[in-house]
Structures are given as structure tokens and as C-alpha cells.
């Protein structure tokens, strides 16, 4: 039961919300080797991650951020910035929202979607570093793949729907209208549904 | 300092209400019983009914006690679709309901459910202050309209509607008129005869009464169909053994409102004015939402672009100040306030909005504490916000 004075959030999350680490000071990002931004203000969440990189070792030496969003959005970018320092670019690229949530001591289910932009912004910053340093070949795009041809629904849309609460194929259909015309994508959609449920919620 | 600025969400019990409820705690008789225990309970329920009725200038028999404002609203909207000619003589042929885009979710979601059941529901727009467009209503009204439901005062932005004029138009076309007056009753004078409405919803816990009890005014002679069946309570209009203690609390709450609301109205207007000017003075780039004058005295809704509402709410909470927000994140859904969006406010402004709602226990010290804390909170959030980076949405505005 939620005690008076207790938050719906973990102590760790609360600590990072009250005292966020590594906030980018000022408005300038010129001193950094890679800059990535995801989300937008109209949706209620936007995150920017900037990194400094040791070129020899390909290790992230500094990571700072700005976030527009709720407590879990602020805390998850804060903890992400602590996690990635000292990581190689490849290690950092593979951080998932689940890793961030775990480090925060868990997130309320309806808040998971607030924390997924941080690692996306980090990957964008790493890709930006590659581009700036003539390593376009190493850029890893997150290309969306169309699953439902009739309604033009991608794997990203399915992931988004799972983060917003879809747990069954029916709920997925309710949110995306996927598979409501020819229905041929059902098997693929169901396996992606399971994949994203497992990825984000460990279910 | 503890500051409770969320009186539109709910209010603390009035000390006099609490006293009367505690004194009645031993009363457990069923008002339907004929013996002394039952008669005592019955007398208390009827006494409360009389207090509530006289508070809104209704007859006792026009008051139905219910479990909440939401239940009252559900009852009115649902009775309209009852196909029994005994329940609603003369209205079943009219297949359309009109309501507004800024109603409480209990009206909007019931409307949505009715639409699935084949009822036609139309939603009135509001202007940028949250006022219903009377010309649009005039255009919508025709002999297919059975019921119009417009809230008297909005819970999020405080904007008040001209219910008397709306009711006149609605009656001219032969439809019934309902107003959800949960936020208005006990804050501004409400006289059902002067308004002319057929149904009116009120709730106890918004006016220093207990939770779990409300009242529905049903004008004499108006068709009716109960939402909860199976008992003769409330003259067959709402089955279920009466919440005697709650009803008694509601009766005392309206009695205290009658004594206090007029002076309190002016006092809250004064406090709100200080709050509004202080915020304007101390914080850049803000927007007030709602109507500047046709609004509840204690309600102030303000947006801070570049700062997200849940963060504002929680940083204020850490300082002992309780407010609410129109941001999506705090609501559990992904969309920000439907009320603010309906007034044409963009999504960012809605995400960055907080509602400050004052009440009878609010003081100038509370307002000053808020004005001391809020600027720092907004500054802190904006400093970590992407909105103010070079080239960001609000970079130039600071």
C-alpha cells in the first residue's frame, strides 16, 4: 500500500528527480563530440543527450543532457548519463529502456514510455559522433519496418502501442487498427507484440 | 508550511460537518425500517433533504440522494435512452443529446457509451476562455434534440457558463436541460428555479462534506428512470440503503455553505488576484487559462511553456504545496487535458499547466509561500528543459 508521504516512484528515481546529475548547463552544445535529440514538446517528452568521446579507446568520457518531461523522464536521463560514462560506444549503443528502468529500481508500468526516449537520444548522439568523424558506415539507423501493409503500421508503431499499454492482439488492434483489413500480418504482429512485451516489461 | 491548493479535486471536511457526523456515528438504523431506529435515520435523511432543497431553491421531493456527482451525471444521460414509454413519455422519439467538449469524463465517457448504443451525441465547441458558443447551440437545436447537458463551472479552468440563457434556448426547442453543477454549488449562488434547469448535479466532497454522496435535482414532472434499481428508496429513484451518515454530512455542508460562501467568494477573489499578479511579476513566459472574469473565485489555471506539469506538481509537493496538472503524464493517459485542448491551447501549453484551486482554509500566507516557491521550481525545470537550448522552441524568449 502507498503510505502517506511515499511516492509511486522508487527511492532511487526520487533521488535522481530531486538531484539530477549531469544536466547540460547553458544553451550551447559545441564542446561535445556527439549530440542526439528525440521526442517533442507537443507530446510531452523531449530528451537531448550530448557526449564526449575518447577517440583512441572509443569510450564515452562525459555525458550530459536536457530533458523536457515528467519525473520519470528526468530521472531516467539522469541515471542514463551516469551509466554510460566509461562505456565503449558499442556498449552504450546497446543500452535498452529496460536497463535504465532496472537501474532506477523499476518504473510504474504507465511510466515506461516516458523513459524510452533517453536511450534513443543516446543512440542518436553516438550516430552523430560517427557522422562527424567520417564513420558513416558505422551509423546504425533504427529503420521502421512495415508489418501491416493495409493500414501502414510499422514495428515502431507496435512497440509504441505496447509501451502505451497494449498487452493482447486485440488491444494492439484497438490502438493501431493493425490487421483490421486483410489480417495477414497477424502472426508477425503477435510475435512482435510478445517481443516488445518481453523487452520492456519482462513479461 | 503545508499548503493545500487542490480544492477542486476534493476538500477537507468542514469542522462543523465533522462534528455533526461524529455525533451521529452511533446511528445505524435503516431509514426504511418502521421502528424507532429506522425512524431516527429517516428523520436525519429527510432533514438533510430539506436543507439541500432549500439551498438550491428546490422542493424536498425534487432531491434524489446518490453516491457521487458521477452517478448523478450517469443517471441523467442514461435515463434518456431508456426505451420504455413509461419512463420518458414524449422524449424517446428524440434521438440526440447535446453536450460540450469540456465536460467531466463521467459525462464524456457515458456519452461515448451511448453513441455505441445508437444515440446521436453532439459536442459543443468552446471559445478560448472555455465558454460555450450560443450561436452554435442555436444551430444545433432542433426537434430531434432530447437532452442538453452543459456543466455550470468547469473543474479545470473554472469557467462558468450562462446556464439560464442556455436553458431558455433548450426549452424553446422542447428538450430537457441538465447541468453538472458539482463545481458551482456552494461556491456561487445556485437557484434551480431561476436557472430553469430540469436536472442538476451536485456533490458533497467538493464543498467540505464527506466523499461518497451527492444529490441530483429532478424538476417535478420531469421524466425519470433509475440507474440503480431494486428498492423503493428515494421514492424509487435510486435503490440501495441510504448512506445516512454521508447524507447527513451533505445536509450540514450546504448549511455551512449558506453561511460562509458569500464572504468567502470575495476573499478568494482577492487571494487569486494576488496570486495571479505575483506569478505574472515573478515568472516569464506564462499563460493563464480560462475566463478572466466569468470564473470560479478560487480557481487559477496557468501554463508554463518549457516546463512539464507533473514535474512542477512533484517539485511543489516536495515543498509541501499540493496542486494538480493538465499534463498527460500525471493523468495516466497520453493526452493532456481535453479541456485545455478544447479552448485551443496547444499541447505543450496543456502539458505545462497547473491548476491552483483555493478553498475556505486558504490564507494569504499560503499564497505568499506559493509565490516564494513557484518561481524557483519553474526556473529549475526550465534550466534542464530542451525547450531552451540553442535553436529550441523557447530559446529566444528568455
TrEMBL record, chain A:
SUPFAM superfamilies: SufE/NifU. One of its GO terms (molecular function) is iron ion binding. Residues 146-194 form the BFD-like [2Fe-2S]-binding domain. InterPro entries: BFD-like_2Fe2S-bd_dom, BFD-like_2Fe2S-bd_dom_sf, NIF_FeS_clus_asmbl_NifU_N. The keyword Translocase does not apply. Keywords: Iron, Iron-sulfur, Metal-binding. It holds the Pfam family NifU_N. Residues 8-133 form the NIF system FeS cluster assembly NifU N-terminal domain. GO terms for biological process: iron-sulfur cluster assembly. This is Iron-sulfur cluster assembly scaffold protein. It comes from Pelodictyon luteolum.
TrEMBL record, chain B:
Catalyzes the removal of elemental sulfur atoms from cysteine to produce alanine. Seems to participate in the biosynthesis of the nitrogenase metalloclusters by providing the inorganic sulfur required for the Fe-S core formation. This is cysteine desulfurase. Gene3D superfamilies: 1.10.260.50, Aspartate Aminotransferase, domain 1 (3.90.1150.10), Type I PLP-dependent aspartate aminotransferase-like (Major domain) (3.40.640.10). Keywords: Iron, Iron-sulfur, Metal-binding, Pyridoxal phosphate, Transferase. GO terms for molecular function: cysteine desulfurase activity; iron-sulfur cluster binding; metal ion binding. It comes from the Bacteria. Its EC number is 2.8.1.7. It comes from Pelodictyon luteolum. Its cofactor is pyridoxal 5'-phosphate. It catalyses: (sulfur carrier)-H + L-cysteine = (sulfur carrier)-SH + L-alanine. Belongs to the class-V pyridoxal-phosphate-dependent aminotransferase family. NifS/IscS subfamily. Coiled coil: none annotated. Pfam families: Aminotran_5. SUPFAM superfamilies: PLP-dependent transferases (SSF53383). Residues 3-369 form the Aminotransferase class V domain.
